[in-house]
């Protein structure tokens, strides 16, 4: 299984508690996913899974310098839709697979951000899924799937 690239966008608020400590909450639209190759069945067969979430990270931030912060906290995500693009050679078909995944996902985030004097900001985050997002069924083998993500952020702070 390979990771795929996705995107995220949204808005957030930050509340300064002290000169060094702040709390931030955001509402984001995240696209996550994976590519699974079925080499044991047929090397020409693969599936790209795209999971779209509305995510709410709540982060504690510690400012090491005036505009550079380390951040950590939970992210709560709700699955909006899920699709699998099944490819065999030159043929591709898309399937709705939302019913195969849990609606809620919880991740632990760690990252860093920097706000330039102009208000532009950059940031990086790593998120580790805390719960199994695959629904299990007594008729099928139990799968353990967890979302892990790496995000790069460009934004503007008002």
Task: Report on the architecture of this protein.
By secondary structure, the chain is mostly beta strands. It has one domain: Porin. It is 0% helix and 66% strand. The protein has no helices and nine strands.
List keywords for this structure.
158 residues, 9-stranded antiparallel beta sheet, 66% strand, Porin, single chain, mainly beta
**Mean of residue pLDDT?**
88
Q: Please, how many helices?
A: 0
Silhouette? elongated
H/E topology pattern: EEEEEEEEE
User: In CATH terms, what is the fold-level topology?
Assistant: Porin
Radius of gyration: 18 Å
Give the low-confidence spans.
Answer: none
CATH class: Mainly Beta
Query: Per DSSP, what share of the residues sits in E-state strands of 2 or more residues?
Result: over 45%
Major sheet details: 9 strands, antiparallel
Q: CATH architecture, please?
A: Beta Barrel
Give a quick precis of the structure.
This protein has 158 residues and is mainly β. The chain has strands spanning 2-3, 8-16, 21-37, 45-63, 68-88, 91-96, 104-115, 120-129, 148-156.
